[in-house]
Design goal:
eight-stranded mixed β-sheet, alpha/beta, 27% helix, Glucose Oxidase, domain 1, Aminopeptidase
Length: 553
Amino acid sequence: MITHLNSLRRFTLIVLLAGSLTATVLGQSLAVAPANSLSSAERELSESVRTETIREIVKALSADDMQGRGTAQPGGDKAAQFIADKFAKLGLKPLGDKGSYFQSIRFRELQFLADTSLKIGSENLKLGQDFFITPPYSGDKNVKGDLVFVAYGVSTPFLKRNDVQNLDLRGKVAVVLEGPPPEVKKDSWKQAHAQSIVLRGLIARGVAGIILLNTGPQEHTFSELADYLTRRQVELADEDEFPDFLPPFLTVREGTAEKLFQAAGLTKQDAIAKAAVESFTPIMLQQQLSITIRLKKSKGTSSNIVGVLEGTDPLLKSEALVYSAHYDAYGLSADNRIYHGAADNALGVGQMIAIAEVLRKAKLRRSVIFMALTGEEYGGYGSTYWVKNPTWKIKQVAADLNLDGMGTEVYGPVKVVVGYGAEHSSLGSTLNDVAVANGLKVIPDPMPDEKSFYRSDHYFFVKRGIPGIMLLGAPEGDTSVWIERLKQWEKADYHQPTDVIRPDWNWDGPSTIARVALVMGLRISNDDTMPSWLPNSIFNRERGTDKPAPPEP
């Protein structure tokens, strides 16, 4: 999962179309059951979901020989072939390039080389331990300049202060406090995108580099951020590269931040105190900073794996429901650590294949697409690419049911379900009906500050006008108990080599989520109409639209 979601709302149940709608499953023709109960055919199919399939897929994909399933790495290619072989054995028709299961995507890779270094005064510092470089990366750099403290870097007409007054910043390295200044409210600063304005202003003044210093509690520690931002980076090959004139943006460890001020006889706290005064004037820090940036750039390919079960209805088979799950993890690091990605997201792929294993026995009115996506961890690149280069008519994609998460379904038998995105479309009432029929409770997003709705592949379908939802399951009981377990997992194992299968995993939980997704898919595939947006949703738009999505909160 790749950031926040408003609380889920309860929806009025949609009244199913009356009449002669039937589902022919496993050779049986059976009238549709009431919305909040399972028909005998639905029950028979959901009971056919094999826990063994999920376990086997997760074990295979998270094994060492898959090398972390890295995007545009050999391990990712091996995982893609493994999934394509499973699709073929299940009888899915290829829906990739040139009659294959593979939709190839070109990527470029960036990796910091060992000779990337930083020197403050006469002291040499180490990448990842003492500092890291923040995106955007514009290429190799050799920067040397005098350090100058510019407080919050503010220079705007509507504030009384001007932190860079009468200062020639050309060729200098600006040390900037993360805003806002004390006299500005945080909400106003954020809404005005003031931090970006400050940085753009410093660039326009010709700074050679920028060091941004924290002034309060942070959501992520220096070590956590350094771990992510010193890893191999991947982006789409046809994305515009950042212009070479951009200066490097640096973040330094707290102890290293103190070294910036020592030669001027200051501490960081002294500097913050001086910056609090509206009459602040820039302070030369009496030493130089030198940074050498060396990037290894290369190109490669990775693939979405796409297969389809064709529908049986002469009219509706041209429409398709999508099941999606990303198969990539962070791959193999430069020092040969394997990011196994068992919970995130071998589990989702296992659930999706277990669903395909069952649905191939059903006769569905609509077609059903199964999509194992690449590049999700770097920003949803696989789903972004597919919705822009669809292998099915985009206006005839009914919905996306996305299987991704952080493994909470293995904490015990699943008794509660979260549907990220449920408040935006009729998929919310479908989830509620299926959950009730399975004796499950739908709960609001328990951690809305994490904005999980915006952090996985379903969101890129939503942005193109296609209703989408992501499912998360958890055990019954006090929500705070499993939330605490999740937070501990996020701290220790999320996107780390230690995301592996654990002996205490309860495999019934993933099977329950697969069954919920299966029955939702059955109902979507056999309904007379495709899922619809709720009138008050900010995403209410025509399928396949290119209109920009609403800004993320």
